[in-house]
Amino acid sequence: MLAPALPVRFSAVLGLGLMASFMEFSEEWIVAIPFIVALLTISFCDWRHMIIPDKITIPGIILAATIRIFIHPLPYWEYVVAALLGGGIFYCFKLIGKVIRKSDAIGYGDIKLLLLTGLVLGLKLTLLSFLIFCFVGTLMGIYLVVSRSGDKNVIVPFGPVIASASFISYIYGNEIFFGVYSKLLL
Prior knowledge:
One of its GO terms (cellular component) is plasma membrane. The chain is mainly α and about 190 residues long.
């Protein structure tokens, strides 16, 4: 049997290796490495224990906000707006879910993860991440409901889906936008 930490370490090395193969080496790596490690850790924690630890998200938010003061390919305000918009959208989902389901549909950990994502990705890539999340999250939710005999009270760990969408947007986001934009111009 593998030690629980071994898959996490392997995934972290794999994720960083994938990042290294697609990202040009630059000062952005100072942002990328802690972000990718946080995404992987959050994914495993939420999948296994249904919790996104504040010990990861809050220091991540502080670190990302601080690093982005010095390393910001986009205007700094764009990262702040992206964080507030991402977290704000999920907070609205939380309120709507509370009214409709009479229980929490989204946890505060998901909201904090979106704050972190916004501070790292910026506005355009955070919105792309959100679109990817909605698509994949919907498919995942449908699968879980169907596989559990139509039980609509299935609890879905959104952390891994948000983290995956954020990772895809961070690594491939500009190429995705360029590809879609070029197709729209044809």
